[in-house]
Backbone:
């Protein structure tokens, strides 16, 4: 992951790799560490994937940890703020936010993938 302050003008075009890294580290990784006893994830030292296959493996692993942790939450756990991590609102709001992020960024990945496939006539058009 990269960042600059102030933001560059024009802003760079996002990539599938960046979106996957954002989901794996920022959306899932931090929260798995904070809320479900996983290893703390640091965006500066995380071993980002070098290939698509590796990124998908990281995504599957981190989502599996997130999903398992959420499934173990009781009603009381969901209604109250978590005991660890910086987020101080009910866990149900955190779960909702993470799921919205996964849907949002997953849709962006799908769009970028479709646009990539259609660039320069790489895929024959069917009408």
Residues:
């Amino acid at each position: 992951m990269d960042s600059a302050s102030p933001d560059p003008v024009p802003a760079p075009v996002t990539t599938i790799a960046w979106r996957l890294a954002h989901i794996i580290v920022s959306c899932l990784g931090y929260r798995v560490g904070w809320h479900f006893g996983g290893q703390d994830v640091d965006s500066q030292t995380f071993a980002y994937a070098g290939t698509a296959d590796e990124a998908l493996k990281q995504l599957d692993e981190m989502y599996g940890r997130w999903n398992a942790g959420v499934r173990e939450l009781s009603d009381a756990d969901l209604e109250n703020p978590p005991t660890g991590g910086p987020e101080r609102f009910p866990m149900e709001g955190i779960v909702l936010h993470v799921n919205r992020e996964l849907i949002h960024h997953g849709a962006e990945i799908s769009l970028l993938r479709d646009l990539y496939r259609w660039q320069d006539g790489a895929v024959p058009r069917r009408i």
User: Anything to note?
Assistant: The chain has four helices and no strands.
